[in-house]
Amino acid sequence: MTKKLGKLNIFKRNYKKDATPEVPTFMENLQARRFVDAGKQLIIREDRLFALKQEGIGSKMKLVEEEEDSEARLAKDYEDLLELVMQTLENSLDLQSTEEQEVLKEAVHAVLQEEDQDTRWVGFQEKERPPWRPRRCKQNHEALLERLVQRRMEEAELDPSVEMHSSMQHSITSKAKRLKEDLLKVVTWVRSCYPEQENVCQFYATLYHNIFSAKLREVAEYTLCDEDSILLLHWVKQDYPSILNVSKIKEVIDHTKLDPLLPENMITPLEQQFLTNEKREVSTCLHNILDREETAWKKGDFPQLRDQVYCCPQAIDVIQCFHRYVEYAQKMLGDETKARGITCQMSNFLKDYKTFHAKVIRSKQNNTEAVLMVNLSFLIQCRDYITKNARLFPEDVKTDCLSLLTAMTKSSQHYFTSNMHRELKDSYRKVGTYEWLKDSHGVCKELLAKLDRHIQKFNNLDKMCCQELLGGMHKEFLAEYVRKMMKQKIKLSNKDQQQMAASELCSNSEHIHTCLTAAGSNMDWLKDILPKLAELLKLQDPDSIKLELVNLMSVYPDLSERHISAWLRLKGTLSQLDRKKILKSIKGSQDQITDESDSLQFCFFSIVRIK
Fold first, then answer.
1. What is the CB neighbour count within 10 angstroms for residue 311?
2. What is the crossing angle of helices 344-362 and 368-388, to 10°?
3. Which of 250, 361, 454, 507 sits at 20 to 30 Å (Cα–Cα) from 547?
4. Residue 94 in 3-state DSSP?
5. What is the mean pLDDT of the chain?
6. SS3 letters for 355-405?
7. What are the mean pLDDT values of the chain's consecutive 10-residue runs (611 residues total)?
8. How far is the C-alpha of 364 from the C-alpha of 587, rounded, in Å?
9. 480 vs 430, 431, 453, 506, 522, CA distance in Å?
C-alpha cells in the first residue's frame, strides 16, 4: 500500500483556497472558451478526487455535501469541455479573425494538456485510475482532423464558370483547388496555434496528400482517353508539385516525406500513352508544315521577301514545333531520356521532306531555284539545331537526322554548282591552255564575270545560308580550275614558262579569292592552294620538289599520287625518270601522313576528279 501511495504522490499538489470572488468558475471558463484554464480546473479536481479515493479518506470521514465531488459530475464536466474543444478543432479551417485563432490555440493546448495528464496515469492499474483515463485526446484530435479533411475534399466544388471537359477533370481539379486553398489556410491561420514540435503543417499536408493520391489512384485504374490520361499525368508531374512549391507552403512542408502520388506501375502506362499521343501530335504538326510548303511550291508560289531576303518560315515553324513538344515531354516525364522517345518523329519527317526536296530538284518550274534556296536555308538551320541540341536525341536518331540533312544539303549545293559549271563550261576550257598561258588574266576575268552573274541569284539568300552555299561553290570552282590545269593541255618546256605560269596562278588565285569572299564565301583557307601548287612549278631541283610535296601533303592529306603525277607532267623540264623517283620517294611519306592526318587538316583534292 505504501508503494502505491508513493506512486500517487506525483499527483499531490498544494491547494490553497482562494476566496477571491474574481476567480472564474469552471463553467465561466468554459463559456468564455478558456479551455486551458477550464482543463486545469478539472485536472485539479481529478487529482483531488482520485487521491482521496485511493487513500481511503472518503470512507473514514463525512464530507460536507457542497465540498464533495463525484466521478459522475467530473466525467460530465470533462465531456462538456471536450465537446467544445472538438467543435473548435472541427472549425480549424474556417478561421476568419485573430479572436477565433486564439480560441483554436486554447483548444489545441487543452488537448495537449489532456495528453500530458494521460501520461501521468501511465503505469497504474485500470482500477486505480479514473475510468476515462487515458482519454487519448491527441489521437481523437488527429482522427477528427482526418475526417475534417476527408469531408472538405469530398465537398470541394469548382467555380461553375470554369469549363471542364469531363467529370474526372472536374473532380481532380476541384480537389486540387481545395487542397491548395486549405494548405494555405493551415500555414496562415492554423500553424501558429500549435507548438512548433507538433509540425501541424506537415500533418495536414500528409492528410490532404493521401486523400488526393487515393483519388488519382482510383482514376488511374480505369482505361482513360488520351485527354484524361494526359491530364492525370500532368497533375502528377506538374500541377501538384507546383502546389507544393508555392513559397508559403514550401517553407513549412517537406514534400520528400510524402509518398508518391501514384505508384510506378500506374505511372508507366500513363507515360507510354502520353508518348504515343505526343508522337502522333508532333508528327501531325510537322507534316502540316511540309504539306503547306509543298502546296505552295506546286502552285508556283515564290518565297516571300523580307528586307530583300527570302523568308524561311518552315525552319522556324519546324524547330519551334518540335522543340515545344520535346520540352513539354521533358517537363511531363521529368526525364530527358524518356522524352527522347518522341524525337524519332524528326527523322521520319526529314525522310518525307527528302522526298519533297527531290521532287523540287527534278522539277522545271519557274520557282524551283527560289524554293531550293529556301530549302537549303531550312536544312542548315535544322542541322545547326540538332547539332546544338544533340542531348535531346538518341545517338541513332541524331545520326540518321544529320545524315538526311547532309544528303539533302549536298544535293542542293550540287544543283547550284552544276548550273555554275554549265554556265562556265566554255570559259573553263581555256584554263591550262596556251591561250591561258598567253593571257591568263583575260581568261580569269571572263570566268569571274560569268561566275559573278551566276552568284547574283543568291542575293536574296540569308547571310548564313549564302555563306555556306558560296563556300561550297568557291571550293568547287577552284577544284574545277585545278582539274583543268591537270589535264595537261600545255607543257611548260622551260624554266621561264614555268615561272610565268606560277606567277599567273598566284595572280588568278588572288582574283578568284577576292571575288568569292566578297560575294560571301568564308573559305579563307582556299587562297593558299594555287600558290602552293605554283611553288612546285617554280622549283627545278627534284629534291626540293620532294620536300615541297611532303609539306603539301601534310596540309592536304587527300592529295593523291595521281594528282601529283598529273601536276608534275606540266613541268617539261622534269624527266620521266625523275618524276618516277619523286613519286616513289613520297609514297612512304604519303602513307605516314595519311595515318597521322586529323580533322584539322584540309580536304580539297578529293573533289578534284582526274582520270
1. 16
2. 160
3. 507
4. helix
5. 88
6. HHHHHHHHCCCCCHHHHHHHHHHHHHHHHHHHHHCHHHCCHHHHHHHHHHH
7. 35 43 86 92 87 48 47 90 95 93 95 90 80 90 96 84 74 92 96 94 97 94 85 91 93 92 93 93 96 95 89 94 94 88 94 96 93 94 95 95 96 93 93 93 95 90 89 94 92 92 96 94 94 94 92 90 92 89 80 55 87 78
8. 48
9. 12, 9, 18, 16, 19
Per residue in 324-372, pLDDT tens? 999 999 989 988 888 998 999 999 999 999 999 999 999 989 999 999 9
Q: Which CATH class name applies to 429-607?
A: mainly alpha
Residue type, 103: V
Distance CA 556, CA 550 (A): 10
Instruction: Look at residues 350, 352, 339 and name the one whose alpha carbon lies nearest to residue 389.
Output: 339
Give the Å distances, CA to CA, from 207 to 149, 184, 196, 201, 328. 7, 14, 18, 10, 30
34: helix, coil or strand?
coil
pLDDT in tens, 537-560: 999 999 999 999 999 998 998 999
Residues 443, 436 contacting (CB under 8 angstroms): yes
Domain range summary for the chain, segments of one domain joined by +: 2-141, 156-262, 268-412, 429-607
At position 255, the amino acid (one-letter code) is: H
268-412 has which CATH code? 1.10.357.50
Q: Rounded distance, CA 521 to CA 217, Å?
A: 62
Q: In sequence order, which residues have a C-beta less than 8 Å from that of residue 78 and are 6 or more positions away?
A: 42, 132, 135
The grid coordinates of residue 246 equal 508555392
Torsional sign, CA 549, 554, 560, 563: negative
Angle at 538 between CA 535 and CA 542, to 5 degrees: 95
Q: Which residues of 475-503 are buried (b: 16+ CB within 10 A; e: fewer)?
A: bbbbbbbbbbbbbebbebeeeebbebbbe
